[in-house]
Amino acid sequence: MTAGRPSILVIEDDAEIRRVLKVGLGHKDYRYLEALTAREGTTEVSTRNPDLIVLDLGLPDLDGLQFLKELRKWSKIPVIVLTARGKEKDKIKALDSGADDYLTKPFGMGELLARIRAALRRSAERHGGDAEPVFESGDLKIDFVRRQVFVKGAEVRLSPMEYRLLTYLARHAGQVLTQKQILKDVWGAAYVEKNLYLRVHMHQLRHKLEADPAQPRWLVTESGVGYRLRSE
Amino acid sequence: MTAGRPSILVIEDDAEIRRVLKVGLGHKDYRYLEALTAREGTTEVSTRNPDLIVLDLGLPDLDGLQFLKELRKWSKIPVIVLTARGKEKDKIKALDSGADDYLTKPFGMGELLARIRAALRRSAERHGGDAEPVFESGDLKIDFVRRQVFVKGAEVRLSPMEYRLLTYLARHAGQVLTQKQILKDVWGAAYVEKNLYLRVHMHQLRHKLEADPAQPRWLVTESGVGYRLRSE
DNA sequence: GGGCAAATTTAACAAAACGTTAACATCGGA
DNA sequence: TCCGATGTTAACGTTTTGTTAAATTTGCCC
């Protein structure tokens, strides 16, 4: 909501986790809403119009994934997904279905709050409408108009593919992107299986942009999932 | 004049008026081009890419107004319209359709020349952004008013095409321009596929301007994309 | 309008950049 | 310690860009 505090809808069947989240979120910065099932979640979303959703993938009635897919047909509300450890497949499927970020249980409240802040910030920028003509984070700078990339003020020369890949990551800065998503959007739908392309080009980008390519500061890999361009 | 004069396309069916304009325009300051019909005018525009158009509204085949509307879908070339006395309605419609100025017949040559100068100046300003009369970067200097180019203070002779290409790059200095963009704006819309023209002329420009043409300092290529004139 | 010089357009070929691929190394979790 | 996922490197083939010179067109003076 534009006025007052942002509202966060938690869709979660486990009472213990709900209790923790209610305490952690509802106190001062956010308005806390909750739903115990996907069905209930759907009505909550359409009647309360929350600013962000925290969704547990292991729901009793309807699969959380199914809920997400349905939601994405008509809404772009940011969704942070909670998964049980080891359910890597579900996590990736959720991201591919339009989730913005994920957290593996058990998680710390501090981390969840940080990810909520990041997602809300990205969402606000998206709504700001005008696509920023430059991206800046630390000493990495991308000028989309001039098609130039700088590290510490010095221009870096990128190939067409490298530039495409980097700008794609930058436009979704801070967000986890699955390998499939990246390949689909940067190379094209026919290339979703070509993970090697991504590895090689990511390596080249790190080589050109990172001070220490072995310890990347911006182009971080989310093992088992994909990559993320860290912002600031 | 080392770099060619602005070219003006006159679209006019009346032979007498054409004769007057040819004498008045074609003599020294401008290159005179002509077309007798709107159809002919369209091909002239797309193949010769003139700097300005003088258009008679009373054409035999297609209405001059119609021509103007079609033209404005793909080109911003300044157009000065000629109307017969009393056809006020047409005049207004022409301005609404994208004409830059108008003149009522009969008109004096002096007035037409003044309006042409004004329109060309406005057009140059539009393209240059700021109305800078000179471009300077390192020891490369372009005087847009005198149409002269200097390297380390010594004047360099450029062909008309070379000059057009260089000034186009200079007016977008620092920005990467795709081959298509350059071809469309420098050669004309009919030439967007003629990449070879661009390669050859770029080579000639480098030969004339760069200290080491193999390691260009200003006229850099953005592989897979296009070219860019680096500024300081 | 003919003829000359300059400019542009072609064509053929060379060089460089790029994407793709394979083979192998390394890392991190079970 | 094993295995899958990710990182690294170099080579290959293709596409893009550069180079040169010749053919054609254009502008222009007479």
What does this structure look like?
The structure is a homodimer of 232-residue chains. Chain A is an alpha/beta fold and 232 residues long. Chain A contains eight helices and twelve strands. Chain A has helices at residues 15-26, 38-48, 64-72, 88-96, 109-127, 160-171, 179-187, 195-209; strands spanning 7-11, 31-35, 52-56, 79-84, 101-105, 134-137, 140-143, 148-151, 154-156, 177-178, 219-222, 226-229. A five-stranded parallel sheet of chain A has the order 2-1-3-4-5, with helices on both faces. The first copy, chain A, has a four-stranded antiparallel sheet with strand order 6-7-8-9, with helices on one face. The longest helix of chain A is centred in the middle third of the chain and has 19 residues, at 109-127. Chain A starts with 6 loop residues before the first strand and ends with a strand. The A-B interface holds A 145-148, 159-160 and B 174-176, 222-225. The structure holds a DNA duplex (30 and 30 nucleotides).
What pair of chains forms the biggest interface?
Answer: A-B, 6 and 7 residues
Strand share of the residues of chain A? Answer: 15-25%
Number of helices of chain A: 8
Radius of gyration of chain A: 19 Å
Quick gist of this model?
The structure is a homodimer of 232-residue chains. The first copy, chain A, is of the alpha/beta class and 232 residues long.
Which helices and strands, and how do they pair?
Two copies of one chain form a homodimer.
Chain A lengths: L6 E5 L3 H12 L4 E5 L2 H11 L3 E5 L7 H9 L6 E6 L3 H9 L4 E5 L3 H19 L6 E4 L2 E4 L4 E4 L2 E3 L3 H12 L5 E2 H9 L7 H15 L9 E4 L3 E4 L3
Helix pairs in contact in A: 6-7, 6-8
Chain B binds a DNA duplex (30 and 30 nucleotides) through helix 6 and helix 8.
